[in-house]
Amino acid sequence: MKPFRYIIAAAFMCLTAFLGMYLYGAVSFNEKQNDTIEEYKGVIKVWDIATTTIKGSKYSFMNTILSEFCENYSNLRLEFYKIPSTSDEQAIEESLQSASGPDVIRSDIKGYDTTNDGVLLISDEFKQELNSYYNSAIKNDYGNQLIVDVHCNASVILVNKDLLDDIGVDMPAEKLDPDGFISFLETIQEKSEGKCNTLGMRNDNKYIIPFYFINGAENPDYEYFDRLCSFISDETIEQNDADAVYSFYNGQTAVFCADLNDVNYLLRKQMNSDGFDFEIMLYPSNTDDFIYINEITSYVFYESSNEAKNEMLRRFALYLLGYEAQKYTENIGMLPCASVDIDYKLYGHLDKLTDSNLIVYTCRDEFVKGIMGED
């Protein structure tokens, strides 16, 4: 595959100034060790929540990385603590404030606030080294706090191909522009004769925002999504998110605005011979193809009174952004945050989503925050 190039626009009116493609090569773990500090001998505790993987344990991503990192240090032991995503927030917060709390924790665990005191501070030099690992689209400005962006999720459109076959509609042979996408929905609506929902989605901005970018971020179109709403039935509009997802997962909706978690779930169902054939599409565009990164998963590192332990935490932070760790983003069906060239052998759809010609917008871009009404 060609390397994954992210392209960022700084503001609406100056996007084109940044459309020079960024080509990067693979980055391997090559930690800059501080030889003046004695190697840490002890335990580092890592807390993580379950991830909807394509194959394997829901905790296998971080667990595997931890095991392989430990192979480099004979006196290091890493304890991996599994936190269900539905864990009691008060219990987690109490653990965070106790001596049994984590050294490294996933930042989106309920009850945790990344502004809490105690995050490991790093020098400007180390920050520069850490940032050199990242893909250019990941705006990870945490100041001098050691917080590492590891993998990211993207908004996509899913089409139930089995359902299309049943109603006699062919998948488009080529990329669809916005008008072509509407024509595709019109055909489904006409041929289905009310036997299925034409279009569905959760009530979440991360599935709506990409429709604003059909003419590029410098010229957002807020009317196109209104046109699409005519293909969402009144019954579907009244559904809650769980019902909307259920309708698509169970073959009642032809086209669904989704993300990579949905892709993972459907692939797992296929592996268990309990799914349907589906196609992954990019959002329609009148300009260059783009992808919208709607979520970035980060890990926060806490400071220790033991400087040798802090040095080991810094090494682990760099390791998370090296090829040896980032290659496992394929196993969880997510996109890497680092500048790595992954040869996707198992799940080819990730190759499509990391194509070097894609423009990439992220939830951290200033123009996206403006649309969301965020500061």
Characterise this structure.
This protein is α/β, with parallel strands linked by helices. The protein has 2 domains: 22-150 and 296-344, 3-Layer(aba) Sandwich (D-Maltodextrin-Binding Protein, domain 2); 155-292, D-Maltodextrin-Binding Protein, domain 2 (3-Layer(aba) Sandwich). Helix content is 30%, strand content 18%. The protein contains 14 helices and 10 strands. It has helices at residues 60-70, 89-96, 124-131, 161-167, 178-192, 205-208, 224-228, 234-237, 241-249, 260-271, 307-320, 323-326, 349-353, 366-372; strands spanning 42-49, 76-83, 104-106, 147-160, 197-201, 253-259, 278-281, 290-301, 335-336, 359-362. Strands 1, 2, 3, 4, 5, 6, 7, 8, 9 and 10 form a 10-stranded mixed sheet that branches. Strand 1 (42-49), helix 1 and strand 2 (76-83) form a beta-alpha-beta unit. It is elongated, with a radius of gyration of 22 Å. Mean pLDDT is 84; it is low at 1-31.
How would the blueprint of this fold be written?
Blueprint: E1 42-49, H1 60-70, E2 76-83, H2 89-96, E3 104-106, H3 124-131, E4 147-160, H4 161-167, H5 178-192, E5 197-201, H6 205-208, H7 224-228, H8 234-237, H9 241-249, E6 253-259, H10 260-271, E7 278-281, E8 290-301, H11 307-320, H12 323-326, E9 335-336, H13 349-353, E10 359-362, H14 366-372
Parallel strand pairs: 1-2, 1-3, 5-6, 8-10
Antiparallel strand pairs: 3-8, 4-6, 4-7, 4-8, 4-9
